[in-house]
Amino acid sequence: MRNVLIALGALSDSDIDWILDVGAKQKILNSESLVDMGQPIDALYLLLEGQFGVFVNHQMVAQLSSGDIVGEMSLVDSQLPSATVTALIDSLVFSIPRSQLKQHLSADLGFAARFYRMTSLFLSNRLRVLNAQASGAQSASLQAEDYDADEIAPDVLEDLALAASRFEWILKRLNLK
Q1: What is the model's pTM?
Q2: Which of 76, 157, 88 is closest to 117 using CA atoms?
């Protein structure tokens, strides 16, 4: 959940309105792939409900759940996905078409700045988690939510309360609450 809070804290209300206007809910059934390693990806996904496994060479390397974002790496670096993301149970995602997102990033520089800040915060958080796992400082099952609020940068922490209310607002607009 912390990932979506970091993300939503960096965006404005109008950014979120735009995302909700162009995106759509999508059911992903148990064992269905959301992203296939090495295959083009046509959307950025916000995980709303359920659970996903991240697989590299058929080995699960991470689990994702509500509030996680998928597809941001390929959007940023224009590379093919480096992992397969598969639903572990019937799940629900919010899909933002990549083509529309890229057009909006080019047309609205304010949105682009906020979006890329959000993405950099999200990827930085993910890298910190992986570094902690690799160093053995934390257990292999470490999730982003395991970090204490004290470890969140003060400027990001200020946005978390607003982000939490935005996520609730998104879920209500999507008739999930």
Answers
A1: 0.79
A2: 76
Number of domains forming the structure of the chain: 1
Please give the residue range of the domain that contains residue 28.
2-173
Q: What is the CATH number of the domain that holds 159?
A: 2.60.120.10
Q: How far apart are alpha carbons 111 and 142 in whole angstroms?
A: 32
DSSP 81: P
Distance of CA 134 to the CA centre of its chain: 22
CA-based angle 161:162:168, to the nearest 5? 95
CB distance 64 to 93 below 8 Å = no
Q: Decide if 126 contacts 64 (C-beta within 8 A).
A: no
CA separation, residue 64 to residues 72, 86, 106, 115 (Å): 14, 10, 29, 21
* pLDDT tens-digit map of 11-42: 888 999 999 999 999 999 999 999 999 999 99
